[in-house]
Design a protein that fits this description.
Elements: E1 11-19, E2 24-31, E3 37-43, E4 49-51, E5 57-59, H1 62-73, H2 80-97, E6 101-103, H3 104-118, H4 120-130, H5 136-152
Parallel strand pairs: 4-6
Antiparallel strand pairs: 1-2, 2-3, 4-5
Helix pairs in contact: 1-2, 1-4, 3-4, 4-5
Length: 153
């Protein structure tokens, strides 16, 4: 790791911490030449390509999952930390699967399976966007599916 101040390649790590929300390691470093300190972030390079509904591809982003979940879980019992943990779990599942390509529909399904267990309001909010409800009847079907799941349990 090069020092951003003097470009010396000899540095030492003075502190390391896990950053759960971005699945990264934050490292505090010190240059052995100029003694200045700086911070670096090491992340797993996910080479998962996400196939969008329009057929285009983009790189997988845990941050996008967090943003979508934050919107769905706003003003519910699911905290921001809960959202980050859920996004991390989904990311870890994708890593374990060792997939190179996944569709937004598959990612949405993974999210919905977990959301229905956490909070029904967040589930419905996410479903409205993910399933692109066109009318009230589609929304009612989603609510009925929650009620039928409750009845089974």
């Amino acid at each position: 790791m090069r020092c951003p101040y003097c470009f010396n390649e000899e540095t030492k790590v003075t502190d390391s911490r896990n950053v759960v929300e971005t699945n990264a390691i934050k490292r505090r470093r010190e240059c052995l030449k100029c003694q200045k300190r700086f911070t670096t972030f090491e992340t797993v390079d996910l080479v998962i390509q996400v196939k969008k509904r329009d057929g285009n591809f983009e790189e997988f982003s845990q941050q996008k999952i967090i943003q979508g979940l934050d919107a769905a879980c706003r003003h519910t019992k699911v905290s921001h930390n809960g959202v980050r943990e859920l996004a991390h779990e989904i990311t870890m599942e994708l890593l374990e699967r060792q997939v190179k390509e996944i569709s937004t529909e598959e990612i949405g399904s993974l999210i919905m399976k977990r959301l229905i267990e956490l909070d029904h309001i967040a589930y419905i909010r996410f479903a409205c966007v993910y399933k692109r409800f066109k009318d009230f009847h589609q929304l009612q079907e989603a609510i009925d599916s929650i009620n039928s799941e409750k009845a089974k349990a």
